[in-house]
Design goal:
The complex is a heterodimer of chains A (303) and B (409). Chain A folds into two domains: 50 residues; 214 residues, Alpha-Beta Plaits (2-Layer Sandwich), CATH 3.30.70. Chain A is 37% helix and 11% strand. Chain A has eight helices and nine strands. The longest helix of chain A is centred in the last third of the chain and has 49 residues. Chain B has a single domain, classed as Up-down Bundle (Formate dehydrogenase/DMSO reductase fold). In chain B, 70% of the residues lie in helices and 0% in strands. In chain B, helix 4 crosses helix 16 and helix 7 crosses helix 12. Classes of the chains: A alpha+beta (303), B mainly alpha (409).
Chain lengths: 303, 409
């Protein structure tokens, strides 16, 4: 077996080039761990009256066209969805409360603790900040729309009608928060349905309310472990599905779903080249032996 | 080495006539281009290129049926996800010839590498058409690399592999141009280049499957599996073999006059050798797909409409071509092997469409159907590929060997 200098050099070159990719391709899809006091919002749907003041405040804070038909409850007739010009919409539940009241749920970006969108973004246009918000850098986005594919809540929306399109979604008023203000929607909510604070405290508050009123509330905090946990938490006295909140979301953090595949990358990069070179040397040697035997036979014939 | 190859005058009159105009005077060459096939190609391009311009002028929404619930259409499913799988012939055959020493596949190596090279170039073209702001494509390499993203790895691999395929094909172009020294230098680097190419292919072929690991609620459970990357990798080998079987048969017919009568390539024998590989790879692929089903435990879903569609893919386009390949190899029927090749290629296309489009968002009422503009654009991209392939094969030593370099590659 002649693993000569040249072969060794080739091997080193192959491994070296592959190594460059490997070094860059830092595996593990999980993102920054959130700070202990990361912000969140508790939505108590039993208190929401469906006034849509949050929609109007959101539009104003983000300089969007105002909400669809303000003050007109006919908008609730069909399932509503956020859009590039409406980062939050209120849904009307399909069931009434035991007391016969209508039920509503505000929907917007859930600001996952481990967001699928941010971990899957190839240019870090979506980024999870330690204080809670998942923010969007519009000057980076190349428009692959993988965030829309990956988001289990169907939140990111795309400006399909634009020639220089951007992704649009709730910002959790990150800029307002940085200035010490609260998110616009939570500021205007007249019924106390939206409570802004540290996620950890809100989770305790949510459980406390359920514990104090076990007959009233569904015994679950939506967002506690949906997609591994979200900054926005919901409690309700009607089933969450009836509020049109996405059902059947995995309890795992979504970036973790891709961790296994990503951690295989360095192994392929380091193991494949020597393995392939070994097989090459093997098959070359086989051919050389075969050729030599062939020559030998021909010589015999000549003699 | 003959004098011919060392001739320095690259762009002199006779050189152009010989090497660019197929040995005809310019006018005769132009006349020879008026054929029914070219008329069809021209019609497609005349419809497709303005469509692409319209898409950039008015945005994705104007030219496509994409929506907020269906952000990916056939430009991703076909142009990119299928495109990468169907371009797998390059690494599959290169690995078989150089690494495993399957010398008998040599005559189809260059066409396979050229198909791969053009395939990846067109994937990139398709991606540019599909991306919202494609001019930001380089950001992932040096400005704001999203190192945690599967797409980051795919981006690097595809970018590097495109260069590797360029290097793998370069000897043919250098022989054509008569650049002897450069050709020799490249020849000495072959194995290193092939090894890098196979490694990069292993990575990104599987990672295309990893895109969908984060979509458990959206992709139908019969297709969703934590093993998606492995499914994509193994089926890319099948796609490579199937594509090479089909493409070599078509090329053999289309470029008959380019073939060297002295070399007498026995394509049937090559096809049967590929058939054996195809049978084994597809059989293995069928079983790992079955393991995916077993580990998900969702046998109940087989009794639904989606179950029937799943079985249609599994039995009709994985198990059936595997058996037909095996039968063809045993009966020594190249014709049957080619039928199996077509089934294999269709099966991989069906699988990629299922994962990225058909079984994706299966539970959403708003289903996506491509617009005419999307279809004509994809057709245009394929047509451009076929035209470039034909242009190169008619000029460079691809299906035949260059007289000065016989047996050298």
């Amino acid at each position: 077996m002649n693993l000569n200098r040249r072969t060794l050099f080739k091997l080193a070159a192959a491994a070296g080039t592959a190594g460059v990719v490997g070094a860059a391709a830092k595996s593990r899809a999980s993102v920054v761990p959130a700070a202990r006091n990361a912000r969140g919002v508790l939505v108590d749907t039993t208190r929401c009256v469906g006034c849509r003041a949050c929609e109007a405040a959101c539009a104003e804070a983000n300089a969007l066209a105002g909400p669809e038909k303000p003050g007109d409850d006919t908008v609730f007739a069909s399932k509503r969805s956020t859009s590039p010009t409406a980062y939050t919409v209120v849904q009307k539940g399909s069931l009434k409360s035991p007391a016969g009241e209508d039920r509503f749920a505000k929907t917007q970006c859930m600001h996952c603790v481990q967001p699928a969108c941010a971990s899957g973004c190839v240019v870090k246009a979506l980024e999870k900040t330690a204080s809670g918000p998942v923010v969007y850098h519009k000057d980076r986005c190349l428009g692959c729309r993988y965030c829309m594919i990956a988001c289990p809540f169907g939140v990111p929306k795309y400006e399909f009608s634009s020639a220089t399109p951007l992704v649009k979604k709730c910002t959790f008023c990150a800029e307002r928060q940085a200035k010490g203000l609260v998110p616009a929607c939570t500021e205007v909510c007249p019924s106390g349905a939206l409570q802004f604070g540290a996620r950890a405290d809100l989770l305790e508050e949510a459980k406390e309310r359920i514990y104090q009123n076990p007959e009233k509330y569904v015994h679950k905090v939506y967002g506690e472990d949906e997609a591994g946990g979200t900054s926005w938490l919901y409690i309700s006295d009607v089933p969450f599905e009836s509020l049109k909140l996405p059902a059947g979301i995995e309890k795992k953090s979504y970036p973790e779903l891709a961790d296994g595949a990503l951690s295989a990358v360095p192994f392929v990069i380091t193991l494949w080249p020597p393995l392939l070179m070994g097989m090459y040397t093997f098959s070359k040697r086989r051919d050389e032996v075969a050729a030599k035997e062939n020559d030998g036979r021909q010589e015999e014939r000549h003699v | 080495m003959s004098e011919h190859a060392l001739k320095p005058a690259l762009f002199g009159g006779p050189w152009m006539r010989e090497n660019l105009f197929l040995g005809m005077p310019f006018r005769a060459y132009l006349k020879s281009l008026v054929t029914p096939a070219n008329a069809i190609a021209a019609a497609i391009l005349l419809a497709g290129l303005p469509t692409i311009a319209y898409r950039f002028w008015r945005g994705l929404g104007a030219a496509t049926n994409l929506s907020q619930t269906n952000p990916w259409g056939i430009w991703v499913a076909f142009d990119v996800v299928c495109g990468v799988a169907l371009a797998a012939g390059g690494y599959t055959v290169a690995c078989a010839v150089y690494i495993f020493g399957q010398k008998e596949l040599r005559p189809i190596l260059r066409p396979a590498i050229l198909t791969g090279f053009l395939g990846y170039a067109l994937v990139l073209f398709g991606l540019v058409v599909d991306l919202g702001q494609p001019w930001r494509l380089p950001y992932q390499f040096f400005l704001t690399p999203g190192t945690t993203a599967v797409m980051y790895e795919v981006g690097w691999c595809v970018f590097l592999y495109l260069m590797v395929l360029g290097l793998e094909f370069a000897p043919a172009a250098l022989e054509w141009l008569g650049l002897v020294k450069l050709r020799r230098l490249l020849g000495s680097l072959t194995i290193g280049i092939i090894v890098i190419g196979v490694t990069l292919s292993t990575l990104h072929q599987s990672s295309l499957g990893a895109f969908f690991l984060m979509t458990p609620g959206k992709l139908h459970p019969l297709w969703y599996s934590p093993f998606l990357p492995i499914f994509f990798f193994v089926s890319s080998l099948a796609a490579g073999i199937g594509m090479v079987v089909v493409e070599s048969a078509l090329s053999h017919r289309a470029f008959h006059d380019r073939l060297d009568p002295a070399a007498s390539v026995d394509l049937d024998r090559i096809t049967l050798s590929l058939a054996k590989g195809g049978a084994i790879v597809l059989f293995a692929y069928f079983f790992i797909r079955l393991q995916g089903l077993v580990s998900s435990g969702r046998f109940d879903l087989l009794a639904t409409g989606w179950g029937a569609w799943y079985l249609f893919e599994m039995l009709g386009f994985i198990l059936l071509p595997s058996f037909v390949f095996a039968f063809a190899a045993r009966r020594k029927s190249a014709r049957l092997a080619r039928i199996a090749g077509v089934l294999t290629v269709l099966g991989v296309i069906l699988n990629r469409f299922n994962v990225s489009l058909i079984a994706f968002n299966w539970n959403v009422p708003d289903r996506y159907v491509p617009s005419a503009g999307e279809v004509i654009t994809s057709l245009t991209i394929v047509t451009i590929g076929v035209l470039i392939f034909r242009w190169i094969v008619n000029r460079m030593p691809v299906v035949n060997e260059h007289p000065d370099w016989r047996g050298a590659h």
